Amino acid sequence: MTEKIGEMPLLDHLEELRTRLIRVLAFLGLLLLLCFIFNEPLTRWLLVPLGEVQLIFTRPEEPFLAALKVAFGAALTFTLPLLLREALLFALPGLSRKERKYFIPLTFFSFPLFLGGALFAYSFLLPMGLRFLIGFGIPEIKPMLSIGNYVDFAFLMLIATGLAFQLPPVLFFLAALGLVGPVKLRKWRKYALLISFVAGGVLTPSTDVFTQSLLAGALYCLYELSLLVILLARK
């Protein structure tokens, strides 16, 4: 097989991809083991937004599975920088100078933005949403949350908000492909503001206007930040 990708033969390219994947998976496996060993402090950290609410479990295996989910979530989060680094090093030889100008910053800022979004959800959206949902209803109904359901709910909030904070890298990537530019982004400001509030309503579990506006404001600020970064990159 003599087909080439860039300056590297296809077989060598595939071998490099295999090596990088093995490296990432080995690192993920090691971190998963460590995070599972120390799952108790990780789980306690995840439970902080609950406040005084007590959790139960309804199946014998539920605490074990919840601990495994927490360990895997933490291990995957800590593995993301290595995954992005390996993806960048794998892709760089095939990129032009102009493409590298966009791709390197995109990769560099992706993880901090995801982490920032997850911490934003952990610090504000999750506790506010839980207070609303738990307090909803009549006083005679007492909350009995299971550890498994709470971990799933918390991870959904953290991941969804972390992905929403990927707006700048996504717009930066579209700008690199020539699909959007500063002129279009300026014209789309009013739509971006509307979509930010819609996303704030969808991603926040409460009907509290303040909580929804908090997320909407953060998303719109990220949109304006994306526009600024694209303008600076084109200079």
How would the blueprint of this fold be written?
Blueprint: E1 4-5, E2 8-9, H1 10-37, H2 39-47, E3 55-56, H3 62-91, H4 97-135, E4 145-146, H5 147-164, H6 167-176, H7 182-187, H8 189-203, H9 209-233
Parallel strand pairs: 3-4
Antiparallel strand pairs: 1-2
Helix pairs in contact: 1-3, 2-3, 3-4, 3-5, 4-5, 4-6, 4-9, 6-9, 8-9
Structure in words:
This protein is mainly alpha-helical and 235 residues long. Helices cover 77% and strands 3% of the residues. The chain is built from 9 helices and 4 strands; from the N terminus they run E-E-H-H-E-H-H-E-H-H-H-H-H. The chain has a two-stranded antiparallel ribbon with strand order 1-2. A two-stranded parallel sheet has the order 3-4. The N terminus is likely disordered.
Q: Indicate the structural class.
A: mainly alpha
* Strand tally: 4
**Overall form:** flat
* Helical content band: over 70%
Order of H and E elements: EEHHEHHEHHHHH
Q: Estimate what percentage of residues fall within beta strands.
A: under 5%
Average of the residue pLDDT scores: 85
What is the rounded distance between the termini?
Answer: 43 Å
* Rg from Cα: 21 Å
What composes the largest sheet?
2 strands, antiparallel
Low-confidence blocks of residues: 1-6
Question: Which strand order spans the largest sheet, edge to edge or round the barrel?
Answer: 1-2
Q: How many structural domains are formed by the residues?
A: 1
The number of distinct helices, counting runs of at least 4 residues, comes to 9
